[in-house]
From TrEMBL:
Domain N-acetyltransferase residues, every copy: 4-140
Biological source species: Pseudomonas eucalypticola
Source taxon at top rank: Bacteria
Keywords from the UniProt entry: Acyltransferase, Transferase
UniProt key word Acyltransferase: yes
Record-given protein name: GNAT family N-acetyltransferase
Length: 140
């Protein structure tokens, strides 16, 4: 296996790869309605692509207000720390942009993953796209 690397993506040039990953994870696997998966925030976000060699296998985005989201890794590459690399890249970018606080809405089953990166649960459980979530916050 090649080394996994994360790079800042260009929304316009890399949209096909970002869409392919998010559609596979959120729409196909988790039944998120397509109209909820892609939104106007994509235009203003910093996007990240995790690649094995030249093949994109994961993505995430950082919004201008410090919200991290759409962290997704293709099924065959889960458990290989790809999500960790994506989240670390998004946090580093947020800190570089002087965003002292990062936030996200985590699927409840993934809260321990985000807690390992310094996020703390700050809300009660709620449904988003039919999936239980909690809001989480991390301060730099």
């Amino acid at each position: 296996m090649n080394k996994i690397r994360v790079r800042v993506a260009d929304w316009h040039k890399d949209i096909a790869d970002i869409r392919r990953i998010r559609e596979a994870v959120f729409i196909a696997e988790q039944s998120v309605p397509p109209e909820l998966e892609f939104d106007a925030d994509d235009n203003d976000a910093v996007h990240f692509l995790a690649c094995e060699g030249d093949y994109p296998i994961g993505t995430a985005r950082l919004l201008p207000d410090g919200q991290i989201g759409r962290v997704s890794v293709l099924k065959d590459w889960r458990g290989l720390k790809v999500g960790d690399a994506l989240l670390e890249a998004a946090i580093a970018q947020a800190e570089q942009q002087d965003l002292k606080q990062q936030s996200l809405s985590a699927q409840v089953h993934a809260t321990a993953f985000y807690e390992r990166h310094g996020f703390k649960v700050v809300s009660e459980e709620f449904l988003e796209a039919g999936i239980p979530h909690v809001d989480m916050v991390r301060s730099s």
